[in-house]
Amino acid sequence: MTDAQDKRYDVLVLGGGAGKNIAADLARAGRSVALVESRLVGGECPYFACMPSKSLLRSARRGETWEHAVARRDEVTRHLDDAPTAAEMAEAGVTVIRGRGRAVRPGVIEVDGTEYGYTDLVVATGSEPVIPEVEGIGDVPTWTSDEALTRPDLPRRLIVLGGGPVGCELSQVYAAFGSQVTLVEAADRLLAAEAPFIGDLLADELRRTGADLRLGVSATRAERTESGLRLYLSDGGHIDADRILIASGRRPRVADLGLETLGIRPDPKQGIAVDVTCKAVTDAEADADGGTTVWAAGDVTGAAPYTHAANYQSRIVVSNVLGKRREADYRAVPRAVYTTPTVYTVGVSPVSATGLELLSAGYDLSDTPRATVENDDRGRVELYADRARGVLVGAAAIGLYAEGWMSEITLAIRAETPLSILTDVVHAFPTYGEAIEPVLRELAEQL
Ligand SMILES: Cc1cc2nc3c(=O)[nH]c(=O)nc-3n(C[C@H](O)[C@H](O)[C@H](O)COP(=O)(O)OP(=O)(O)OC[C@H]3O[C@@H](n4cnc5c(N)ncnc54)[C@H](O)[C@@H]3O)c2cc1C
Ligand SMILES: NC(=O)c1ccc[n+]([C@@H]2O[C@H](COP(=O)([O-])OP(=O)(O)OC[C@H]3O[C@@H](n4cnc5c(N)ncnc54)[C@H](O)[C@@H]3O)[C@@H](O)[C@H]2O)c1
Fold it and tell me: Which one of 321, 343, 377 terminates a domain?
């Protein structure tokens, strides 16, 4: 085994999704940096997650053929070629180490038998799909989002297991291109953590796209049949299909990283606990070890499983590694689902708000002139304010382009802009953004 002192870096980054930004920024700031990546430099988002799913959703919206949509998707993901991104890393001065990294002792990572030393370690290993405990699921044809977003085949009959963001986006994709989609969700509605109107309106849309929704039932058993597979449900029913797309959640990728040797004990569901500076919480003895620091960013922290949140945490890590203390604030991290119409929620959800006296008001997009112009009256926006402080703390919307016209609400929540100022903001006519004005006025009157 090579001596770790021979291959020593100021900073080692494990995982090249959000981790690649950290590596490049720190290298540009003059640190010696190595990035360890076991799959593709760039992480999941550009190749297996956000980008291919958004490309397929766009193609579905435009009524393209499946073949065209797949060709376009594969162009968007550069046919899974990470050479240009790896070259960008090299240009920034980052050494890219291909392979799976794991900690062997404080200050040392091992990749395929070679040891590398570090002063700062950043763990950015992302998350992985959870395979639900359904008897027989391992014996029938299944996909996770990885296959659903890279394969060229269009299953004739597809069961989508789970009605979270992955299940909703991919049900709309496959139903739009002609698969006979049945979505099974254990909760009573889609996107169950959000305001109820969101899941209800989205369910109407998915049904309109052609999907059959089985809400409030879970899968109990799967078996192979002559024509494909059969999935049994908790309500006594069953569904016959050719394939199951598992979209039943993800968990932080923390297994077999040797984190315990660094005094880090991640919760398998919550991931690596970090403080406000994104420094990993370690045992007292590990802290006393001194000399090295472990940071974490992205899905592995369980903080907010979105690329924009991972990128935000990356900026927090970079700043703190460079000695400029910066604290993360998660009050206004958007949660968008890019179906048509789009779901955009941010801040507190009325479903889980505790310890706040929430004021709420809402408005149907059908009442905006823009809905007439677009000939599309789908959607609604609701805003939630903290009565005690007179500021917005949460928002939920579903509607065309909601990811655009709701961003001002993200700023309002983050900046704690008083309602008295928000009610004085002018929106262009005719935009869906005008829907926000009556909601704000109603909230201000309730104060
Ligand atoms: C289908 C789907 C669609 C999504 N769409 C969106 C979207 O539209 N918008 C959005 O904001 N978010 C979306 N997300 C979530 C988004 O993909 C993640 O939040 C984001 O990729 C997290 O970035 P990350 O850097 O933490 O992890 P990742 O992107 O997963 O990167 C982690 C990297 O670490 C590598 N790695 C793991 N272990 C090791 C190891 N031991 N050694 C070396 N390398 C290792 C992995 O190979 C991987 O490349 C979507 C997710 C899915 C599944
Ligand atoms: N647009 C985006 O930003 C975007 C898109 C896709 C995914 N993501 C992120 O990726 C992560 C994973 O998304 P996801 O949708 O897989 O997870 P999720 O945890 O959000 O949803 C999974 C759903 O599956 C259901 N479920 C679990 N087991 C079941 C069973 N046996 N039978 C029936 N239903 C079952 C759960 O009740 C839950 O509603 C999320 O954190 C999400 O935020 C983001």
Answer: 321
